[in-house]
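Same chain as my last thread, 251 residues:
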Amino acid sequence: MSQSEIKLDHHRANRIGIEEAIYCAGKSDDQIGTILGQLRAVHKSCLLTRLSPESHARISAEFRPMLDYEPASRTAFFNWRARQTEPAQVAVLTAGSSDVPVAREAIRTLAYAHVDSLAVFDVGVAGLWRLTERMEEIRKYPVAIVAAGMDAALPSVIGGLFPGLIIAIPTSVGYGVAAGGATALNAILASCASGITTVNIDNGYGAACAALRVLNMSRRTGGAAVADEGDKRQPVAAWSAPSHAAKKPVC
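reply #2:
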């Protein structure tokens, strides 16, 4: 393989605050090996996404000790060192357990950037009590990433209950007319809940990067997304339910 096929962007983090990630789907074993060799030569780390278990198994033994691989999300950290993380500022929700691999990609992308998160899985609208019992906790975070397939109702529900930034991920989960996530994407785009943003189908990595851009800019401008008061976490300008919230709605 020619080295000219690979040209890494080592300075991306200096420009946008997020390092280049390596999208492994469609890359040959030689290309992946070359990339890892170039990174090792300059003592760089990287996040690998869409690295299948089969591709991971074929990576050269010389690189294997430098990889932290998670099959569920198909992500790997190369030459990465953990460090103390900030208090979690992102809640990552899924409608169903089938959405978890996509959510795990988002969680792992945040973790690579040393950002902790709260995982709230399997809280879809078919059993809404599962969500309502966690909403008080979820509201304490400035950012929510919400992964949902089928009719993707969950992001709209969160949009009516959560005051912070909502990044929806339509997933390809669902039968027939779910159309591989197209129905979920269209449902999110057509949502009546104002201000929901969305990424492409199954793009947990992209959702995490959107959250990182917001958090990075908050740091640069001196903003504090979350204020800690002892053991009680509260959002800045904390949201509280209006006094009429418990009343029977007028139909």
